[in-house]
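#lab-general

N.A. 3:47 PM
ok so I finally got the sequence cleaned up, no stray characters, all 213 residues accounted for. can someone with queue access submit it? mine expired

B.Y. 3:52 PM
send it over

N.A. 3:53 PM
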Amino acid sequence: MRIGVLGTGIVGRTLATKLAALGHDVMMGARKKDNETALGWAEETGGKAGDFADAAAHGELVINCTKGSVSVEALRQAGAGNLAGKVLMDVSNPLVFTEGELSLSIVNTDSLAESIQRRFHSAKVVKTLNGMNCAVMVEPGRAPGTHSVFLCGNDRDAKADVRALLESFGWQDIIDLGDLTAARGMEMILPLWLKLTNSLGTSDFNFAVMRED
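B.Y. 4:20 PM
back already:
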């Protein structure tokens, strides 16, 4: 599959590297075509590099790995036309730090994923993987036992495509939370996740939903 990964940070690089290793045709997108991180990643992995618009146009499926505070602007640069009709997998979070204090810029009655869907209404936004370390995203076995990954979105077929991608990463317990309003709760997990990371001294953990078979 042709996949465009928007963002050159650790999350984007980790996902892009895993996808390339699985045999997908991956292009990493940055703000500028000459971004050294994207070009270096492409040279190391045999993938492709370009700007946000190039990556969005390349992908049959597009993954938003940009910081939540700039995601809408990054997607605007990617181009609504390049996203139209495509699955847009969103792993970002609306985190902001003010004077060392963490908060969410969008919360309770809205979510970043819903904001993206409203702005890019022809895309098929699916929220997933936002509540864990990026290494665990692509290698669930880093956290022992069976644990859960959530997804939500308004398009059933788009969610099926994302589910298949998650399964290829090794995920077994994939919980569909319904429409995109579920992203509100998914994004609100992040403050708890960060506190747990500090408390446990590791980010190699995840949440497990235990229930009867």
